[in-house]
Amino acid sequence: xxxxxxxxxxxxxxxxxxxxxxxxxxxxxxxxxxxxxxxxxxxxxxxxxxxxxxxxxxxxxxxxxxxxxxxxxxxxxxxxxxxxxxxxxxxxxxxxxxxxxxxxxxxxxxxxxxxxxxxxxxxxxxxxxxxxxxxxxxxxxxxxxxxxxxxxxxxxxxxxxxxxxxxxxxxxxxxxxxxxxxxxxxxxxxxxxxxxxxxxxxxxxxxxxxxxxxxxxxxxxxxxxxxxxxxxxxxxxxxxxxxxxxxxxxxxxxxxxxxxxxxxxxxxxxxxxxxxxxxxxxxxxxxxxxxxxxxxxxxxxxxxxxxxxxxxxxxxxxxxxxxxxxxxxxxxxxxxxxxxxxxxxxxxxxxxxxxxxxxx
Length: 360
Ligand code: DAH
What we know:
Layout: H1 3-17, H2 21-32, H3 37-44, H4 50-89, H5 102-105, H6 110-124, E1 128-129, E2 135-137, H7 138-141, E3 171-173, H8 178-187, E4 192-201, E5 212-222, H9 227-242, E6 249-256, E7 259-272, E8 275-278, E9 283-293, H10 295-300, E10 309-316, H11 317-325, H12 338-344
Parallel strand pairs: 1-4
Antiparallel strand pairs: 2-3, 4-5, 5-10, 6-7, 7-8, 7-9, 9-10
The structure holds 3,4-dihydroxyphenylalanine.
């Protein structure tokens, strides 16, 4: 076998053995590239005598054609094989059930949902959100709110007290969100328009009471703030919160040390086979306490009652959540049962908004 035939059969077997397109390309470059073996042979033609060039040139070109053709054939085979392998590895079974993403699988607790709903409603009316600590002083929880030391009204709240300090003062778990009123009035100048949602604590436990519960307080202080404003705000709130066009409310005289006059508010409803409808019916449900801020409270918070007046209200978040979403036992809110949460919870991406709907 001549050297040329040897070279040709060597290259052809390399082509046949190339496992993929990259290896095949390497064989091509080694044979036909600028410095390839066949290109090198072609370069020798220039130095040959014309006769020899003719015969040798024809042979070398035949070898080159054979190699070129073998390369093309092998490349097609490798391309098809690569595509088949990819198709086999990338199959998708479109009949498989969809898996819920983590965000879709989680649920927002009804209390968090109601908390978001009511801040959305009051924010729309121009209220800011104020916060205070769960552990309060006796002064902020009681005294500055016009519960004099030793006054029986303090007994209305079954308070969790901490052990007395050396100076005799005692911290406590706040029994209502009203101390946030005090902190707000001491911390900023009127006009004031805030709501204060938060955790509250009392020694109490049955189907309608838990030792820890939630309230939202509202406070407006301005020169001309009056009961008419309060009634309008509460009325608008109830319509928006219960998502009805019309609601009847009843304002009854009551007593709280920090307001004068004080009122309790009921909303009209109908109970029907375990369901409650608002804005109709014969029943009345108490939902909140409110009133004009007592001058003693304003004075205790460095606000001159001769110049400013205001109103406030306090409402149980747990209670309005239960009413709105048909939850029968308050304790279920705190049990952390995921089956319950899957039923009563809300999808995390359905954020309440007045335009998009609060609960849908
Ligand atoms: N702090 C009261 C309670 O927990 C609720 C309340 C009633 C708050 C009337 C107020 C109010 O701001 O004006 O029982």
